Amino acid sequence: MNDENNEPLRVLRFWRDLEIFNIPTTPTAKDNTPQIKVTTLRRRGPQRTLPWHRTEFAPTEPHAFLHVVYVGVADVEDLARLVLRGILPADDLSEREVQRVSGQGWLAAFVVNEHGVPLPDSYLAASYAHGVHAFRETGALDNVNARLQRAKEEFAQRCHRLAQADEHGDTTASAPGTPLRWEDLEAEREVVCALLGDGAQKAALDWRVVVRTSRIKRSKLKDNQEAATEFLNSFYLDDLDRLIGQAEKQRPFGAALTRYLGTAIKSDGRVDILTQHATMAQLVSAQHLPRARWPAPSKHPLVLAQQAAVAEVLRTLDPGSGILGVNGPPGTGKTTLLCDVIADIVTERARRIAALDKPAALFDEPVQMAGMKFSPLKRTVVDGTAIVVASNNNNAVKNITQELPARAKISGEFEPVAYFDEVIREIFRAQKVLDDEKQPIDGWGVIAAALGNVGNRRSFAAGFFRDERKSKPPTATPNMAVDAPDNAGDNEAEETAVTDDATSRTEPRDERPPTLKQILETASEDYARYQAEWKAAKRAFLDLHADVEKQRAVLVAAEQAARELDRSRVQRETLEASLQSVAETLAASEQALANSRARQNDLRALMQSHQAMLAQCEAAHLPSLWDRLMRWFGRETPRMIARRQALAAPTQALSETGTALSAISRDIAQSEAVLQRERDRHQAVSRELATLMRQRQVHQQALDAGYATGAKHFPDDAFWSLPSDTRHRASIAVGPALDHLRARLFLHAVELHRTTILANASKFIGNLRVVNGMLTNTLQDKLPADQRPRLWDVLFFVVPVVSTTLASFDRLFLGMEQDSLGWLLIDEAGQATPQSAVGAIWRSRRAVIVGDPLQVEPVFTVPLRLTEALRRQHQVDPAWSPADESVQTLADRITPFGSWVSRSTNGVTDDTRIWTGMPLRTHRRCDDPMFTVANRIAYAGQMVQGRVDDAGQPLPTPFSCVLGQSAWFDVASRRVRHPVSEDELDVLRQCLTALRREPAHGEDGKPARLYVISPFRKVKNACQKVVKDGQFDGVECGTVHTFQGKEAAIVFLVLGTAPGPQGAGARAWATGAPNLLNVAITRAKCRLYVIGDTQQWARLDYVRELHAALPVIRLPSGTQPSASPEHMPSLFDA
């Protein structure tokens, strides 16, 4: 195989080598729970006592403690600098690199038992350190895995020298041994640090140790020891290595990954659907209208671009496989779009269920799995219907799996709906899912589940199934006995009975809502009832499906009629013009013929007159006998000469008149023939026009029938003549009645799933018991990887949507091979590095990539110069580099329908424009000026405001705020410790104080949510301190990255930076692209307050647009508050 000609293989190797240099991060105090404590330790600091020497972590009889130790902990920025200098000693990180990395990384990690004794097999050295060492030695990274394995073996040897194993060589939590000391931890750091070179060993870094301590039931200690070792150098290395191996063996990838790694579509193969109306009309055709929709309010349909995206996703991907990019700027309804896609997929599976003769036909013949009876689902029913939502952004994952099951996500116009609602409430309780106000969420159905990490899987299992069998199976019934597992007395399942210790102590078991297992046990006792319910649900679904199809047929006919009316409108105008022309010609011809006939009559009369005159002349000059005799001899007598002369004039006149009469008679005959043809043409055109008008009447009736359904628009000439913003707020070929019907079809599809599960209760009890064991990892080696796809079939049948981060994808879907998942929906894909999605795409038959390359870019910790060196080494095009690309940009490049977006502020510079796939453009989040500024700096004015009145004017959100309208608080900073300005913090403090005195609120009267955002981590930290010290409750602080995918009524944007050259680099980084400013300002729904120095910021790219749009309030600087914040005079009191 010629690797030089195999670009996908070179790209995969490039990405694999980059992942080797990924700097993994430690847990933080944010991860603390009642059972988990994260501690940061310094040998010479106040926190120096190692956890296994502290009384609070002393083991007890019921509980043990497990410590995950991270040594050589330092800021990621410092470690990235060591990596760069280890390979390129003379280089340093750029401002862009400094700002893109955050958190703290580590050099090595391992697990320590409650006695402080390390577990030898738990060791993991940082791959980037071994990568630096390998690159310096050989210039290649092919043997890094071998180096890591050797490092693990060497650690085990060091452990054996430190600890004494028992006679069986046991070094588990129960084994004696020597506890680790500070000297041991520092020695471990030095072992790895030496790999980075002399510069690392001499670096005066703030080295520290981070320990994640877990309190665990002793009965679960073994499982948790395995889970504790799940820390990784890179979440994607295993998948990349697997795909490299497949490519090296020349085994083809599935369609989705093949396209993802394929060549970009050329410019002439791309269609800008914002300007090419014919293509957009095809995309939103009623023929492609999905049969189902999410039960959102029927008066709020998808708008034009959303309709195009959903229809294109289902039209191109649902019948087969592939990948499609969807570009969603802030507030344009990405989640709404995904909900409709999910609804249609679930409905399609219900259609397959409805084709079954009976509920039991859902299953193939039973098999043995992990010693239990398992009934696989028929592939014809479930194939290709699994839905996974993934993202690098936890908020995006949360949005899907917490919003979809919430009752608030179902419009109140629909009758009370429930899909095992008691189960989702128990799952939410087990997973501690709360709303934004920290209150429990009322769920309507177990439609989605967050399963990414081990904790999520176990807490989900506890709320979902909770198999609490002890030493004997549940009371058998005739229906259950068939599917009881062969080892029904197995105690392994007991370990999964309760995963939340705190909850189990405070909440009596009998007060909990029933789990699905208990519901199924009850259903299995009433077989006949649920068989009847299944038949009723099937019939109701099919009837409603038929109603939807009838309505769709009406709309398809109406759309076709609209097109025919447009086409025939030109034809009608042509025929009418032709008829007019023929009529005019006919009239002229008839007039000319009448004139000719009149002339003919005149000539006839004249001829008669000449004949009479000639007769008179002849009579007057009759020749004598002599004259006749002489003429016979050829002589002309004088009398005959006189006769000839007398007859000459009348004879000539008669001849000329006869000639004229003959000519006009011939003309009349020809004119009559022409006139007849013209009359025939007139009649033909009249008949054609009459036929056309009858056809137009039929088409108009069909169009009127479409309008009668409630549809307001069809993709006809009248629609495309509307202003652009009006079109993008409109919907094609749908109305409230049909949308209500489509939403009900989805709900009936869910109900058919519910009755199918209950009608097969016994089989599902047995199946879900095995699924539960897979989720909680209690089956371990009893469950081969190749059996797991059948288990996922069962779980996806019950819970249609599963969410996970991309980082957890390969561990969650262990054993799931190429194309084994039906649908992959990646949200916020603009934040994901290109390599982070390859494993997920490889496992998926269809991939929908949703995001925005003009919002937050991926977090990428590998130094850019090292990235460039590896790229050149692998001969890979820059288009594949994670330094500048994302999952979204790679998906957009292979999506044929989309739009060009200029990245220049004037919107006309071609060399800065980018291609985005399937653009969403109707924004419904922000008031002005946030909307207008973001639209101008990032989207070349392509977005339209979705919240408008009947006249198309923006409708600001009713909102009351003591600080007034959005503004820029101009602070000429003097007290600066770059990038933190104390003067700006004073202004922030006063703003927050004013809002505490008089909280801002909307129409509902509830206090408004408030964010404090900065582009810079140090400024964010300083703002957090202001909030904490001032006890400003409910205020969230973070960098721009923190708030991607979130929104608040009020946003403070604290700019920071030192004046002049000292802060110029930081400002240049923050304004090098519109992304950061775009995200920051579009978090604000109602008010945006910028705090910063206009002298330093206002003339910079993109910021100048914001400065021009905001009133500037100039504030004094250099003043320190003399009173507490509560009593401090406010700059806004005036």
Automatic annotation (TrEMBL):
<dbReference type="GO" id="GO:0005524">
    <property type="term" value="F:ATP binding"/>
</dbReference>
<dbReference type="GO" id="GO:0016787">
    <property type="term" value="F:hydrolase activity"/>
</dbReference>
<keyword id="KW-0347">Helicase</keyword>
<dbReference type="GO" id="GO:0043139">
    <property type="term" value="F:5'-3' DNA helicase activity"/>
</dbReference>
<dbReference type="InterPro" id="IPR027417">
    <property type="entry name" value="P-loop_NTPase"/>
</dbReference>
<feature type="region of interest" description="Disordered">
    <location>
        <begin position="465"/>
        <end position="516"/>
    </location>
</feature>
<comment type="similarity">
    <text>Belongs to the DNA2/NAM7 helicase family.</text>
</comment>
<feature type="compositionally biased region" description="Basic and acidic residues">
    <location>
        <begin position="502"/>
        <end position="514"/>
    </location>
</feature>
<dbReference type="Pfam" id="PF13086">
    <property type="entry name" value="AAA_11"/>
</dbReference>
<keyword id="KW-0067">ATP-binding</keyword>
<dbReference type="InterPro" id="IPR050534">
    <property type="entry name" value="Coronavir_polyprotein_1ab"/>
</dbReference>
<dbReference type="InterPro" id="IPR041677">
    <property type="entry name" value="DNA2/NAM7_AAA_11"/>
</dbReference>
<feature type="compositionally biased region" description="Acidic residues">
    <location>
        <begin position="489"/>
        <end position="498"/>
    </location>
</feature>
<keyword id="KW-0378">Hydrolase</keyword>
<keyword id="KW-0547">Nucleotide-binding</keyword>
<protein>
    <submittedName>
        <fullName>DNA helicase-like protein</fullName>
    </submittedName>
</protein>
<feature type="coiled-coil region">
    <location>
        <begin position="520"/>
        <end position="592"/>
    </location>
</feature>
<feature type="domain" description="DNA2/NAM7 helicase helicase">
    <location>
        <begin position="800"/>
        <end position="859"/>
    </location>
</feature>
<keyword id="KW-0175">Coiled coil</keyword>
<feature type="domain" description="DNA2/NAM7 helicase-like C-terminal">
    <location>
        <begin position="920"/>
        <end position="1094"/>
    </location>
</feature>
<dbReference type="InterPro" id="IPR041679">
    <property type="entry name" value="DNA2/NAM7-like_C"/>
</dbReference>
<dbReference type="Pfam" id="PF13087">
    <property type="entry name" value="AAA_12"/>
</dbReference>
